[in-house]
Amino acid sequence: xxxxxxxxxxxxxxxxxxxxxxxxxxxxxxxxxxxxxxxxxxxxxxxxxxxxxxxxxxxxxxxxxxxxxxxxxxxxxxxxxxxxxxxxxxxxxxxxxxxxxxxxxxxxxxxxxxxxxxxxxxxxxxxxxxxxxxxxxxxxxxxxxxxxxxxxxxxxxxxxxxxxxxxxxxxxxxxxxxxxxxxxxxxxxxxxxxxxxxxxxxxxxxxxxxxxxxxxxxxxxxxxxxxxxxxxxxxxxxxxxxxxxxxxxxxxxxxxxxxxxxxxxxxxxxxxxxxxxxxxxxxxxxxxx
Length: 289
Prior knowledge:
Blueprint: H1 15-34, E1 43-45, E2 54-55, E3 91-93, E4 98-104, E5 113-120, H2 127-132, E6 134-139, E7 144-146, H3 151-154, E8 161-168, E9 176-185, E10 200-208, E11 217-218, E12 221-222, H4 237-242, E13 244-246, E14 267-269, E15 283-284
Parallel strand pairs: 3-10, 6-12
Antiparallel strand pairs: 1-4, 2-10, 4-8, 5-6, 5-9, 7-8, 9-10, 11-15, 13-14
């Protein structure tokens, strides 16, 4: 695998694409700042590529505005800021290390799943690649902690809360720079008993260097976690230990909120990869070669 860390120089043939990307980003930021609408959910730690999330289909922040995107559009600058390019990843992790990933709550109830992936940069925008290289699932609304008066960390949450989970870096990954892919799916608006939020994506550039391995395989994990306050459904101890409240158990069927998606009631679910006795195959070192 070639994992280039060299950012391509600005050339004349890329000028219009760069200007268009900057205009799109400016419009998105302006909409968020002036519309009075809170954001949905974005990676806060490590520092994301851009400071907003995106969604599938049409909307104020579409992921697929330039094709098959699993990440927001990033402006191409001659001198990229920290986290904006593979040449400037916002974190360095070791294989096998336990790291903390934080994402914004933004006033939403603790509903839905979160999935994390570490994707080789050449295919870092591919939705299919994010599924292939996914390594960790959890309840989106678990691990609630305070974020004080740190606006960058708290984002738009009025109660100064975020979600923070500990995850283990896969040991099967070779050294290199990767796209950390975050997606929240199955979410709902406050006081709703139905699926009411389409999937939202956020990404960060992360360098993996050192640590044990690379090993031949690494098991993927579903770790529900302890849900935060405000669950819209009653629960049993077994449900809270093994499941999450969500409107859907997989990405795909309701990415664009088509058909009867808005009539799907919230339920206690497990990701489709872990339904019954099913478990997804492990990550392998060969996947990255």
